[in-house]
Amino acid sequence: MSKEAEKNLLEVKDLRVSFPSRHGAGAKRMVHAVNDVSFSLRRGRSLGIVGESGSGKTTTALAVMRLVEPSGGSILFDGVDLTQAKGESLRRMRPRFQMIFQDPFSSLEPRKRAGAIVREPMDLLGIGTEAERRQRVDELFARVGLRDDQKLNFPHQFSGGQRQRIGIARAIATRPDLVVCDEPVSALDVAIQAQILNLLVEVQEEFRLSYLFISHDLGVVHYVCDEIAVMYLGKIVEHNDRQSLFRQPLHPYTWALLSAVPGRGAAGRQNRIRLKGDPPSPFDLPKGCSFAQRCPFAQDECRNVRPELRAVSGGRRVACHRVNDEGIGPHHEFGEAVSRVEA
Amino acid sequence: MVPVSALARNLLTSIVTVLAVIVFNFTLIHLAPGDPVTVMVGEMGGGDPELITRLQQQYGLDRPFAEQLFTYVLSVLTGDLGFSFYYNMPVLDLILQRLPATLLLVVSALCLAIVIGTALGVVAAQRPRGILSHLITVISIAGFSAPVFWVGIVLIIGLASALPIFPTSGMRDVTNIGAGIWGDTVDVAYHLVLPAFTLATVYLAQYSRLARSSMLEVLSADYVRTARAKGLPERLVVYKHALRNAVLPVVTIAGLQFGQVVAGAVLVETVFAWPGLGRLAYESILRRDSPTMLGILLFSAVIVIVANIVTDMVYRMIDPRIGARA
Amino acid sequence: MTISVFSLNRRRFVQGAGLTAASMMLGGLPEAYAQTKGGTVVIGHTTLRHLNPAIQSGQATGIPGTQIFAGLTQLNDKFEAQPYLAKSWEVSPDGLTYTFHLEENAVFHDGKPITSEDVAFSLDVVKANHPFGKPMFGTVKAVETPDAKTARFVLERPHPALMSALSPLLLPILPKHVYGEGDIRENPANLKPVGSGPFKFSEYRPGEVLVLDRNENFFRPGRPYLDRLIFRITQDPVVNVLGLERGDINYLPFALVRVSDIDRLKANENLTVTTDGYEAFGATNYLEFNLRHAPLDDVRVRKAIAHAVDKDFIQNKILAGHAKRLDGPLTESSPFYSAESLKKYELDLEKAKALLDEAGHPVKDGGMRFSLTLEWLPDANINSQQPVAQYLKAQLRQIGIDIVLRPNPDFGSFATRIGNWEHQLTMNGIWNYPDPVIGVNRAYLSTNQKKGAIFTNTEGYVNPRVDELMIAAGGESDPAKRKELYAEFQAILTDELPLLWTNEEPLFTLYDKKLQGLPLTVWGALAPYDEMHWA
Amino acid sequence: MQPLLSIKDLRISFRSRTSQFAVLEDFDLDLQKGETVCLVGESGSGKTMTGLALMGLVPSPGFISNGAISFEGREMIAAGRNRAAEIRGKNIAMIFQEPMTALNPVFTIGEQIAEMLRYHEGLGRKAAIERAVELLRAVGIPEPEQRVHEYPHQISGGMRQRAMIAVALACSPQILIADEPTTALDVTVQAQILDLLEEVQERLGTTILLITHDMGVVADVADRVVVMYCGRKIEEGPAAEVLADPRHPYTSALLACIPRPDPEATTRMKLLDIPGIVPAASARPAGCAYAARCAFAFDKCRAERPPLFEVAEGRSAACWLASKEHSQ
Amino acid sequence: MFSRNGSAVAGLVILLIILFTALAGPALYGVDPFAIVSGPLLPPGDPDAPLGTDGIGRDILAGMLVGAKASLIVGATAAALTMVIGISVGAIAGFYGGRIGQALMRVTEFFQVLPALLLAMTIITLFSPTLTTVAVAIGIVSWTSVARLTRAEFLRIRNLEYVQAARAMGARNRRIIWLVILPAALPPLIVTATLTVGIAILFESGLSFLGLSDPNVMSWGVIIGQNRDYMLSAWWAVTIPGIAIFATVLSVSLIGDGLNEAFNPKLRER
């Protein structure tokens, strides 16, 4: 690997995003959607963030894109703090980080033709000449597998998968370094999902993109990402490389998550941990570990002291009192979380 | 049912709004050319400059604007809306005297419109492509499009000459005084028919349209499908599950319209000589009776605010999703 | 408020009328017939401020006020004072002391006796609060009360019009024990009056109805005949017409009805329509030029306008023949009217155009010479103000004058603008009253330009000769000489055209044919209805 | 054994102003008492429509244009008359994908359960609420005495789906149709709901028709699986066998294109993807609907629609490759 | 057949006829609406005045033809004003939210609390009834509902992903508000605009009926207002302009309803 690749392209430190919220009839309160989140991403690599709804994974992505205002922390993109960038200086940075959205039906402006949609970021950010932009659109259409004549079609004339191809073409039009993917395949049928995942992996390699990849689907993250961070109620509870995360999940939550993935047949379901209830609401976070209420292994310490994300052996990181420095936790007695799919 | 804090917040905003309304109205009315004393002296049959000066002093009209405003706000806060230049009585008494007539008119028209309009809308929504549905739609658009005073005039012309069944003006037969509560009620009801019907025409149109579209929307909702899947008869599906949801926008609009009770009734009260607040408002505007004008404008604003709060409470009762319409 | 804005003040000096203290009993004649007693009369009425005529002029308060309050005297149809509360009176030879003897058994509606204290109190109230209090009673130095039933008016100087000002309308006798406390303007009894007239207050709902019931203790035995008067209040001519047609209204004085409906109503066999009873009012309607404003200061322009107006059309079409045309400052019924001295301007558009050309106002682009703003009295004189204004707009266009109509939404705006001379043209009208000194002079006296005051010389007319004539006529007691002076006055005015008089304002009374004993005298409907009865 | 419910030759058509087309064709299905059958397929495959047809709730402008449905031997659709309303709710119940929108927001959970009991079983208000509490307890809702008076928006997504299941189970139906009951839920909650359905079935012997697009769910819960494509059944059989040895190329492609977390994988293998898109219901080809996307398609596939071939005991597939002559 | 589009088309036809009348009518029927052509209150059918004359003998047909323009202009101007104020306030409040949004919504609530017709009457009385005052008064009192609608739409659309995408692509706020969100919010606003024209015409006629109109400009409302007192003797003088107002409002309402159906597939489908 070259020196340049070693350097972190993106470095998020203590990111915090809070929203004022009027929950119910009560007084206004701040909801910490993202709470002291730190991670870094090297050039050409992909980091997956997984979690259930309300975990703050999408908010993290939007904060990195500067689409929501962070209330604390820093986002260093290629050494420049994006949280300090405003107006024009932020706009000048924009070509270098782009985004692919979740919903292929609402992420494309319905009144614009496909060609114009792909061209738009270049127009808005003033990239290239008129002719260059036109040529670039042609290239991109070919690259994502759309026909040339489809440039004149409107979004509603495309299928979901095709729309997501347009979204990808738009995101890479400015030759970005970083692409934030927010659940890019969750709205698609499985067959189409595979097409798009393959395309994403191909263009990543081809253009040496870094992905910040948000998903709730462990299978998808496993397929795309080199490293994975697991979020629970606004915090990262585990951050690991793909293999070790799937082989030996450190955090009981990760482990529960993995074991809940359907598809292991009746036998596979015998040894999984049943999590009680739903995640608590982010409006009233517990004092200690936010997972403590649902964790079968929680002890008093868990309920009273919030565990910090710390490194254990092998450079793996976890936020759990019950996991020791060797990376062994109480759940490891239950055996493997994930076995090979029988099919 | 309603959380105290929400109510308190509502009240606080309301008070601020009321203060703003007072200041706004007062300023607006004082921008007018000519002062009430001129009108009063004219109404009295003329007078000399001395009398004008004396009256101006008496009513404090010679003071600086800011002082007048301050005095007015203070007295309003103590519940004193001032003294009518024209009617020579406390504005509050005057308003309270006229209020029942307007309430009677508007509330009967609204009830008539809500019940019939919603029923029509619901019927129309069940067979949205049927002839009946189209007919109801066209009739409600027509009702919406007809100037309300014109409907009244046509009724008066028609009923006065061709078919003198219902009285066309006033709220009571003046010779009926002392007829007792029962006789009076019958008399008032008899006089109420035409104005209430006229006013209801306009409202009706809105409710049937609203009920139709909201019913259409609700009927395609998942929970209506659930209700059907539960094996409930269509009657329960439509009138329990769907209607309860479809009626929410109707409540909102009813609240809004009730809030505009005074303004809404001006035209009909004028056409039918109905002795209500709307006509009082019109007369006081024409007579530059500024205490009365201010009083009615303020009173109307308070009615709107109260109506909003009540609507909000009703809404909360029908729709348990609190804060859903924040 | 149709009529009330035209003040009744012009009645205040009824000079020229015989003021002998004739003691002929008013209503002596009807007493001879056996009257039907009882019944209710519904009177069509306009909105009113309150029910205390002592502090409020105008027929809106005046009509019910005269029923509720009695006065010292009453006028007959010859402007002669008749006994009312005062059963007799003496005037000292120097004319400075009037002694009134009150009816012994007269009581207020609350049963308390009427005393000379009440008379003195009422005079004070009227003097201080009535718009015409000072002109009427300014010379009354004091009211002495030698005993409970004797009131003595002591004057500073002789005041021949005093007797005519003692009617219930102008000097209603208020009970001191009711009205004596606090500011009279905010006295609650203004809305729940206690008087001593033939009818007593029963119920009032502002804007809706006023009910008066028979005063059982009225000091005139056997009166009134009616049990109840109901005033049905509306400002809407349509409501009045419908009410009359349906028989809901029995009596409609100062009828707020469009002339176009008069013929309809005349054809109704149950109704009587009359213009009697308004002769003394002399209501006029005219186009007022603001003479301070160019080009209206040019008499040629005014004459051109006069030639563009067809008064016969106004009389016969707009007013449907219900009113007379008016060619000068005095109405035809005035004893000083002089037809031969009037300079009349007949419709002649060519002449009008020529006059305008001559005055230096050529036709410009768009066919117009110049533009003028025309206002009118809102909500008053419904039959002639706005219709004539609209007629003038159409007519003056033909000679190249562009009229911009400027409706004043309310009387206040109108009074402020006209009183402060901000207008160019306005429709206006004053009531002449029997004597021009009261009703006419004020519009033309150069000294009567009072900025801020309406119904004065708002047009800004100044002619020393005219001033002289008016003053001379006011001091002249020989009717023939006065008439001569007024003839010259009319000749000069109609030549100089400070105003363009268009028509007399039609006033109607409509009533149920079966209704009898109506007060169709000089005071019209502003007299007690103690004789009114059903046939 | 007589099946509890039997669908024969069902066809559901949609009528538009200009044309009429089928969204479900030639559909046969037998449900036995106590089994779990999964209907699996991509969106537009007609699986939801099948569920709605069983409930007699095919939305306008769709309608059942052919076929028969019999429940316990009784004809539900016969002589053009749809008698589904008689058993709906009572004998066959259905739960839906979005528990948030499927529950009426303006009634309490308790009312919505009690309503079933009051209408179908004539219980009084109080008794019905008491039963509702029991039902809520049975579907694993903590503190049911309180929850019964709460509104749908006051409880979490997982709880809502449990409540929905309680509504469906109120009258102890023989058949429960679950249309994507876990799709809108988080993965940990999804597992809980699947557990619950399984538990319900064990306890009550309810037949479950589970509609899903997720092969993982099929693997976990199904006794039998029916794979659908473009409004037709293309493969049917015991779930374990079908998943292990799919006979239709579409089934195998569907299994292969799902990325799975595999702890052993060190390098990334390209996912198999099915090219192209599902043809629209109004424009289906004459031959096999899957032919255009199938890697193994040959001329016959494009010309002639393959019928369902029985490929083994209780297994069938609609593919020419599965026909006798081919397998030989 | 009475199809939904059918009624919208009927509305369009009526409106076109009215527009044509307003534009060409005065030229085809060259009578001055202010000229006194005959005696007052001639009933319709008179050769001099086919629709009769008003209270002072002016030709009602001429008034109707000339008056169409003013009525339509007041309606359109007031509606335009309503839409411009409402959309601007609603857009800014909805897009920025926060303090600005709160403040703007407070202002909106404040105006909503004021009784619309009374406020309009007061404004017109204070500033004399010209076409401009009337249009402005109507605009001032009726923009609030548009603002609320716009705000609601902006709040909804603001969170759609393509708006986020536009921001991610570096589009400036102004561009996002006017070129990205507004076009998406237009369908309901267009419907509202159409209905607002109708409401404004009704509003104007109501004010005219109360005598609050400019007598120098012939409009349908003016004819009604000036002939109101004659209604018992001359039904035509108020009924005929009333029919014209009714037809105009009906036509725009039908069009609005049709557009609503067209824009709202939910209503159309079922």
UniProtKB/TrEMBL annotation, chain A:
Q: Name one GO cellular component term.
A: plasma membrane
Q: How does it sit in the membrane?
A: Peripheral membrane protein
ABC transporter domain residues are: 10-258
Q: Which SMART domains does this entry report, sorted A to Z?
A: AAA
Locations listed in the record:
Cell inner membrane
Alphabetically ordered keywords of this record: ATP-binding, Nucleotide-binding, Transport
Q: Please list the GO terms describing molecular function.
A: ATP binding; ATP hydrolysis activity
One Pfam family in the UniProt entry: oligo_HPY
Gene3D superfamilies in UniProt:
P-loop containing nucleotide triphosphate hydrolases (3.40.50.300)
Q: Which InterPro entries match?
A: AAA+_ATPase, ABC_transp_ATP-bind, ABC_transporter-like_ATP-bd, ABC_transporter-like_CS, Oligopep_ABC_C, P-loop_NTPase
User: Could you state one GO biological process linked to this protein?
Assistant: transmembrane transport
Q: What family does this chain come from, according to its entry?
A: Belongs to the ABC transporter superfamily.
Q: What is this protein called?
A: ATP-binding cassette domain-containing protein
Q: Which organism is it from?
A: Borborobacter arsenicus
Automatic annotation (TrEMBL), chain C:
The UniProt keywords, alphabetically, are: Signal
Domain Solute-binding protein family span(s) in chain numbering: 81-449
Kindly give the Pfam families that the UniProt entry links to this protein: SBP_bac_5 (PF00496)
Q: Which GO terms describe its biological process?
A: peptide transport
The listed locations are: Periplasm
Top-rank lineage group of the source organism: Bacteria
- Keyword Signal listed? The answer is yes
Q: Which CDD domains match?
A: PBP2_NikA_DppA_OppA_like_13
Q: Which InterPro entries match?
A: Peptide/Ni-bd, SBP_5, SBP_5_dom, TAT_signal
Q: Which GO terms describe its molecular function?
A: peptide transmembrane transporter activity
Q: Which GO terms describe its cellular component?
A: ATP-binding cassette (ABC) transporter complex; outer membrane-bounded periplasmic space
- State the family it belongs to: Belongs to the bacterial solute-binding protein 5 family.
The protein, known as: ABC transporter substrate-binding protein
From TrEMBL, chain D:
Domain ABC transporter: where?
Answer: 7-255
Localized where? Cell inner membrane
Biological process, per Gene Ontology: peptide transport; transmembrane transport
> Where does this chain mainly localize?
membrane
Q: Name one Pfam family in it.
A: oligo_HPY
Protein name stated in the entry: ABC transporter ATP-binding protein
Cross-referenced SUPFAM superfamilies: P-loop containing nucleoside triphosphate hydrolases
Origin organism is Borborobacter arsenicus
Which PROSITE patterns does the record cross-reference, listed alphabetically?
Answer: ABC_TRANSPORTER_1, ABC_TRANSPORTER_2
- Which key words are in the record? ATP-binding, Cell membrane, Membrane, Nucleotide-binding, Transport
Q: How does it sit in the membrane?
A: Peripheral membrane protein
Query: Could you tell me which Gene3D superfamilies the record lists for this protein?
Result: P-loop containing nucleotide triphosphate hydrolases
Q: What would be one Gene Ontology cellular-component term for the protein?
A: plasma membrane
- Domain of life here? Bacteria
List the InterPro entries hit by this protein, alphabetically.
AAA+_ATPase (IPR003593), ABC_Ni/Peptide_Import (IPR050388), ABC_transporter-like_ATP-bd (IPR003439), ABC_transporter-like_CS (IPR017871), Oligopep_ABC_C (IPR013563), P-loop_NTPase (IPR027417)
As for family, the record states: Belongs to the ABC transporter superfamily.
- Entry keyword annotation includes Nucleotide-binding: yes
Q: Which PANTHER family match?
A: DIPEPTIDE TRANSPORT ATP-BINDING PROTEIN DPPD (PTHR43297:SF2), OLIGOPEPTIDE TRANSPORT ATP-BINDING PROTEIN APPD (PTHR43297)
MF-aspect GO terms: ATP binding; ATP hydrolysis activity
